[in-house]
Amino acid sequence: MKDVRNDAYDQVDKRTLVEMASYRQCLSLEIKVLCGRNVTLGYWNDKFDTPDPYVKLYIKTAPNGRRRTKIQNNTVNPTWDEVFHFLLDPEIENTLEITLMEADPISDDLVDSQTFDLSCLELDKVYYKTFIFRQTSEVDVEMKVTFCSAPSDMRYSVDLCSDESNFVEKRRHVVFKAMKKLLGREGPKTPDEVPSIAVLGSGGGFRAMVSLSGVFCALKDMGVLDCTMYTAGLSGSAWYLSTLYSHPDWPDAHPSKIREDLKKNVEHNWWHLLTPSWLRRHLHIIREKKSHGQPVSFTDFFGYLVGDTILKDREDVPKLSEQRLKVKEAMVPLPLYTCLHVKKDVSAQTFSEWLEFSPYEIGMAKYGTFMKTEHFGSKFFCGKLLLSYPEPPLTFLQGIWGSAFTILLQRLLHEEQSPEETVTSMRNTGDLREELHGMIHSEDVEPVGEEDSDEEDDATDASSKEEASMPPDESSDHSFRKRMLETFVEKFNILKTRAGRAGLVHNFLRGLQLMAAPVPSEMRDVTDAADQMATEAKRMYVVDSGLMFNSPYPLLLRPQRHVDIFLSFDFSARDKDDEMPFKELLLAEKWARNNNIKFPPINAKEQYKKYGMKEFYVFSDPEDPACPVVVHFALCNKTFKEQSRPGVPRKTTEERNFAEFSVFEDPHGSYSTFNFHYPPKPFDRLAQLNEFNTLLGEQTIKDIMVECVRKQRQGKARNGKRRRSLLEKITDFFS
User: Fold this and answer.
1) For a tag on the chain, would you pick the N or C end, based on fewer CB atoms within 10 A?
2) What pLDDT, in 10s, does the model give residues 113-131?
3) What residues are labeled active site?
4) Parallel, antiparallel, or unpaired for β 155-156 and 197-201?
5) Same domain, 106 and 241
6) Which of 123, 147, 171 lies at the terminal end of a domain, its last residue?
């Protein structure tokens, strides 16, 4: 048997928290375009058409570097009196390019262009300048540079934000009551004795989403969910959590009711959403987003496809910040979501940084930098909110959290198969990392100008022409839908590239100052990639966290969250049903070790040799009482085949046939990572299997909770003795 620990460890390079971001003061440049004189394109041109001049301003190093005046019609002596503001980095060279243009119905004409070194401007002084074009045309401008005094719009700290801290304090008292009721005399006696419990769901597409819906039903029935502080998910589990927490009936309704709604929504294949009217409507939405200066990618399209499936029939498109209302009274755990920040030209295993999402804020703990949730996707510079866009819909975030699955759409475009045949042909287990490795080609380069452009596209009427070119409603067969999808992709060349398959947002770290922290000597050879984090980059590429490892431990291993018990649910792909289910857990262990964070030793080989395949395993560190405990639930169909509820044997043939199925070796790929179609029977089988497996661990979870309460009580006693001892020494000293 191969050593799972060593194989898994090879996939994660050594990395630690090496840098912190901080606010850096920038310059504010005000340019007022006053008026022009003798604007001309030449004698003969002016004979036939009086100029319609306007001015374009471009500062390559400014985050809002492209601006333009309005057109002044039929005049050689225009008056604009328009004011424009730019933010500048004082530590680099900034140059203004000013261009005089003449509007034309067919194609605008260039009069001339000039450049000006902005470093010659003195602070707080008004500077007047006349630019001369073609030795005749003149434009007067007024410029002034000041230090930008506005406060930062970001938060710089590794501590929890005040909203989350308040939630934790309120939730601790709710959990205290629930835990006392659940554990009786063995429960906590004060809120200080309450251990912090977190529920984690791995990725795995709809398989993970459906599985976690069963887990939550069991946790609620067991009373454990009421004792939980946090819940976190990535990829498919993030889809479930975001569906649950955005449901209008949550948290008042039982998770089983919301599970039934989800079952109805995934009963039909999402492929049938791809009608001409659906594509036309979403093409228009994405074009509108791009026209307002926001980057777009295939993830936008994929997010709508997933969201319109699992959030079907919602009256309003939900937003992540709205989940604050769900946790306002702290009656349910705080949900956390994640994705990775990556580079467009290297794999996630080579370079990636964890980005975390909560209803309160979004940011990177690595850099201690966070923004309000509603500002995600907006444009920042040096920590200042330069351009605020509407909060992105939850569907866009769902597209990012599960963006690895865009490879399925890419495959559909390149293979002459139906969606069902494509799913079956993509390995039933569906290892996303292997599939994506095969999808990336060296010639897959980004179109020239996409990354460097900082211009807000002019809103034109082109969208109506493009919509007119969409295929009419004709047929519903595979080839027709494939042609429609190809037409959609043709509208945006960026969607064909590797960069286009990642989520794209404005880089909120742009212009910040990075302060290096001490790095252990054994880490220095592997931190170069992190040191290259470009705060000058205009775009940020964000992808599915499962491409690094498939469980959201980094969110909850933050020391500030003080998690004592991890209930870890792993729905990751395996080649065989009886294959050791520890690969992702070992990757999480290594991540914790590399970042000097307490984590129990994962003696995977020993546990598997001793117990074989079973529904859950317990990992703890007997030498360190402060180390958290991990209860790791594996996706396997074992006891469920024999029992309908824990301890209740299956009696009828119908009951036994219902439970007799394979998860990872199913010949039809019913539970493949790439399957987005769950009819009622496969849905019920998978959801009930995970509900059953979770219920099997009920007593074990309670026993661990009791033990953690005991440790908390002993810790309080030790601290109390130390405080009393110190007080006695102080009293003796003054006596």
Assistant:
1) C
2) 999 999 999 999 999 999 9
3) 235, 544
4) unpaired
5) no
6) 147
